[in-house]
């Protein structure tokens, strides 16, 4: 069973770590407080209890019976004191075996005698009874020790909750202060990865942050300059190469050569022009993604309608079907280029032994991904050659790729899909042939758009 992975950001991870450390420190502080305060509290309570017991016993030892009665009344009238002539019934069999109660009992017996009985009320936990043995009878003096106890119960819980909340707020503020520059840097890095030019990061704050932001700003500036130089170089190359090609075509049309030779030369020049176009397409920077998702089913349907004629001329067939919504944040031109490159590859090499090319495109939504399978019945590609043909300027066996092309078609598709968070996979098709699978992240249908049909099929183009 695969355990679910928690995808937490830096802020959440740091906040949880600091919160756990602060709460652990708070718990340790409370434990130390109770531990260190236990013995002093026991001494204070024992002193209070011993003084009250000694004074009461001294008064009770007066022979006058009437005076003893008055003493009982006077003691009982005092807040927190209770004097009885009989053993209380509502007492626990023994004291709790904690450091506080054991220390209290030891302090009392040290002064009143080792045989002094000390009991705790079972009704009122703050009431402690101590035996006062006299000649004729034994009295029991009850003392409310709640005044000697520290704040407990609801008050302690309230203080703990308040301290914990203050600790969490402090952790959130501290983590936010530390995480804000990193979050700003992460957003800027994402913009750079999409081919955008982010605003310069502020070079202020901690020394490490200043150095990091300064280095990032210099890197972005150098990348922007390199991109501008590349675009200028590509534009120059395109102009300097395509201008002679156009002039050569004109000279060939005007030259007194045979039609077959003219057609062969024109095909070679067209191949050179296509190769230049592929090189420029592969080298160009990423386009900015659209603000709203693109309907891939509608876009693919339009492309299929445009490519019907080419498949009809070659005697082939082209089918397209889809299921569910297929919206994605991808540049429409980039997606169209991917489909056209794969269709062109299937049209050329998707037929086996001279038969017609049968191409099928199936688009469907799978969770948060869109899956597009473009399949043919050609000779396919050896699985061990798939990784190699995906590399730029690489071609497979002649049976699949022939001798033309620059070997950039699949590399361009993979590059364009990667900018949108997608991927391309080549796999053998069941029954023979090749399947090119495109996977792209699925987006929600834009608000205000009508819900498209959940499934559809483009008619056979052959």
TrEMBL record:
Cellular localization per UniProt: Cell inner membrane
Example of a GO cellular component annotation carried by this entry: plasma membrane
Record's keyword terms, sorted: ATP-binding, Cell inner membrane, Cell membrane, Kinase, Membrane, Nucleotide-binding, Phosphoprotein, Transferase, Transmembrane, Transmembrane helix, Two-component regulatory system
Catalytically driven reaction(s): ATP + protein L-histidine = ADP + protein N-phospho-L-histidine
Record flagged with keyword Zinc: no
Residue intervals of the Histidine kinase domain: 236-444
Enzyme class: transferase
Pfam families: HAMP, HATPase_c, HisKA, RisS_PPD
Residues in HAMP domain copies: 176-228
Biased composition (Polar residues): 450-462
Keyword GTP-binding appears in the UniProt entry: no
Chain residue ranges for the region called Disordered: 435-462
Bilayer-crossing regions: 12-34, 156-177
E.C. number: 2.7.13.3
GO molecular function, one term: ATP binding
SUPFAM superfamilies registered for this protein in UniProt: ATPase domain of HSP90 chaperone/DNA topoisomerase II/histidine kinase, HAMP domain-like, Homodimeric domain of signal transducing histidine kinase
Membrane topology of the entry: Multi-pass membrane protein
Principal location: membrane
Protein name as annotated: histidine kinase
Source species of the chain: Orrella marina
